Amino acid sequence: MIDGRIRRVDDRLRPAHDLSVYGGDRLPVWDGKQFVDPDTRVPLTVWADALEAVEEPAHVSTFGRQVHSKGILGGSEESGRHIGYLTKYLTKSLGEIVEADSDRQRRHHDRLHAELSLTPCSPRCAVWLLYGVQPLGTSSKTSPGHCKARAHRRTTLGLPGRRVLVSRKWSGKTLADHRADRRAFVLQALADIGIEKTVEEPRRLVWHKVQPGDPNVPPRAHLLMHAIAERIRWRAEYDKALLAAGEVSATRSAA
């Protein structure tokens, strides 16, 4: 508490990114090992050294004098209702729920998107190169100022990733564990109606990269059509399993 107000300090250290060093046609270049200045060929500051130079938090947010938070008991009828409501209406694209109805709002979205395009989103963000800092994981494929993360997209406007996060503290499971649970559920539902899926054994498989000109590789168009047909078949099989279980109507209404 400072002056009766609640202040949240960003505990993730970030180098300064107020003024860009590069931009336009003048961008850092890759010398085979690291990014260097295009004129002096001096290497850019590595991430560890940039963090050492940080003297204050990159972001400090000030909230109101009072925060009203309402607790929800797990397992209660109220918690189930709230979870159902959130998971039904939360979306991956802000454009689906926050529409610009006026020129002023559209200009605001444009300004926000322009700012986010120049705001680094993580220690591996390629936007850091514009500020003279070499982020983690850079390579010859890194393009200065161009990051594919969702935080920079206009449809998300700074809100990356999933809206509902999976917490190990709640379930004790990782994302891989949850994927395995979903797969097991679908396989069991299919098995109940007599559809048995072959379980692959990864240890018996050996993967190799396809070499250009390999005559045993089908054309890309054939591979795409095969993948589409496969997923259509999976969807039909799962719908058949839901229909047998009497859950099709509930699933469709919640989708």
End-to-end Cα distance:
43 Å
Number of helices: 7
Described by the principal axes of the CA atoms, the overall outline is extended
Largest sheet composition: 2 strands, antiparallel
Across the major sheet, the strand order is 1-5
Task: Please compute the radius of gyration using only Cα atoms.
Answer: 25 Å
Beta content: 5-15%
Please identify the structural class as seen in this structure. mainly alpha
Q: Note the run of SSEs as H and E.
A: EEEEHEHHEHHHH
Which residue ranges are poorly predicted, with pLDDT under 50 across at least 5 consecutive positions? Answer: 1-11, 249-255
**What is the total tally of β strands?**
6
What helical percentage do the residues reach?
25-40%
Mean pLDDT: 78
Write a brief structural summary.
With 255 residues, the chain is mostly helical. The chain has 7 helices and 6 strands; from the N terminus they run ββββαβααβαααα.
Could you explain how this protein is built, in words?
The radius of gyration is 25 Å and the shape is extended. The protein has 255 residues and is mainly alpha-helical. It has 7 helices and 6 strands; from the N terminus they run E-E-E-E-H-E-H-H-E-H-H-H-H. The strands form 3 sheets. It has a two-stranded antiparallel ribbon. It has a two-stranded antiparallel ribbon with strand order 2-3. It has a two-stranded parallel ribbon with strand order 4-6. The longest helix is centred in the C-terminal third of the chain and has 26 residues, at 220-245. 35% of the residues lie in helices and 5% in strands.
